[in-house]
Design brief:
Elements: H1 5-39
Keywords: Membrane, Signal, Transmembrane, Transmembrane helix
């Protein structure tokens, strides 16, 4: 059974919106961490 073009386009739009939101959220968090490190509010991360 094939999928109608309208449904396929709708699904692609939804997936694209979710991915764009996720990337935007990651950039926002990275920007806040970088701002805090530049301002001296937080220090370098200790791993291990």
């Amino acid at each position: 059974m094939t999928m109608p073009w309208g449904l396929a386009a709708y699904m692609v739009d939804m997936v694209w919106a979710v991915l764009a939101g996720w990337v935007s959220a990651c950039q926002l968090v990275a920007n806040e961490i970088a701002r805090g490190m530049r301002a001296g509010e937080i220090g370098p991360f200790v791993v291990g």
